[in-house]
Amino acid sequence: MVLTRSEVGDGVRFGDLLIELATRKNNPVFIRLLIWHDDAASEFLMKNMPGYYGQSLSDMMSMSNGYYNKEHQKYNCEWFAKVISREFPKIHLATRLIASLTAIRSIKDEKVPENLSANVAKKYAAHHQKSIIIDYERKSRAIGYVMGHNCVTDFWDTANHIFQDPRRERFYKEPEQNSICNEESLRAKIMEQFFPEDEMRRRQKELNDFILRNTVVAKPYQDISCRISGSLLHDLNHNFCQAWKDSHRAGDLWERAVHVAFTPLRPITDAVDEKLHQSGKNYLEESRKNIRPEDLSHPSYPHSAQLLRTQPQYEEKTIKECYANLTRLMHNYMFIQNQYIQYEPWAELLMASIERKRKAGYLEPIYIFVITSTPERPGMDLPTYDVAKVIGYSEAMKVEHEETVKEVKKKKLDMPLDPVALSKNGINVLMGSMWTCSRDKKWLEPEDYEEIYIHAKVAIVDDVAFTIGSANLNVRSMAMDSELNLISQAADVAYDLRRKLFDQCLKVTSNAPYVGMRETYGEWMSEMKRNFSRMRAGGKLVGGLVSFYVDRKPADPVV
């Protein structure tokens, strides 16, 4: 990933920056990278380590999502090869997986689908945490990050989510070298000699047309991470050291093939791996054991926070508890922006908690803001619908809603709730997505709109508490995958975060802290419906908020 990008040129690649820090003459930095990796099958699906398997296999693994250009592919493959071969002694790369039996055991109390693809997926739990620790040994000067962001170039974007932003990654629809007339040859034609101005324009247009025909711009991405300091870093370090002990030294393709092919020899290969893995896996924890939480604190750090995990290896599900507690304690509003809204028990708990408040005499209106993306695969539609139906948005998923209506009529059951029905009990639910559009035309075509992919995982309650991290609102993140979140009652941070996210959705100034959401909710509902109508009529969007809507046949549900 190139971290800093502009119209005139790019900054330094993340990989080059790490090499620079690890090899500089004065004060070189020791860098430990821990990345989730199961096997080639998981890499083929997730593509979270592009280049790890070398050039040929990387091309094969790009088929479903598109190909990096040759420069990117070559760089990725060479970078991994150099790091794995220890060309840079101060960069240690390790991989992490979660055993299949552990993953299956962790979801035994969860409602999970039963079909072929789901049963395969149950065996693959992800080490999905995203965190960074910097200068831990410098104690009070150390910093860390609890993140939603991935470090893959596909995910680069700005907070403005500009339509077809040329700074975002471009993907080739087929390997660049297979194109009959590739980009490099077209550029060479332009530069090979002097041409009249008209001919230069024609050739430049030919190049631009080729790029537009053969590439796609990566989608806009919405994401959130949190920087932390102080004694909380003690827990962040413990989490990393624990994972480092359970990791495997990254090996080249031949080593990995032998490891898979000769399973009975794994105790031997693991022993060798242990010796090669930075003085043994216990080294890091031992070297930091004398740093206490109070050594990391500072008088200028005014907030308290706690780290939460889903960690099947240690039977931890505190992120699930966090969402449950935030939902129970909410009195005014709850704002959730999440990649996946697919955990039906949360929706049921939400409605049950509000009902208990009503029975206890609390009759104030409650506002629920849910912002998510169109499910990325049809296999995610039914789990999303399970939540949408409970919170009053059955009609937002056309095919599933029609099936439900047929079923309830046949069995003479109650029709699914809608937002109007819920509002009569003071439950005001909004479910929307984020979009951007071209500003160059008066009237737009369908291709002139882009959905902003929500990769963020954040929840804010009543301007007094929030959680940020890696966990989605689905079965995997609540029970199966390794996840890391932060929760805090820093009210000023909660309000500032909510204000920024609200402004991003509607481009208007948000209301003051700790006040009712009646006006905001009404404005959001009206504007997201108008934007939905504008999209259907070819009009330009106002802000980025659009009604959540899915109209396609769902596939067998996935895990």
UniProtKB/TrEMBL annotation:
GO terms for molecular function: phospholipase D activity. It catalyses: a 1,2-diacyl-sn-glycero-3-phosphocholine + H2O = a 1,2-diacyl-sn-glycero-3-phosphate + choline + H(+). The keyword Lyase does not apply. GO terms for biological process: phospholipid catabolic process. It comes from the Bacteria. Pfam families: PLDc_2. Residues 450-477 form the PLD phosphodiesterase domain. This is Phospholipase. It comes from Pseudoduganella ginsengisoli.
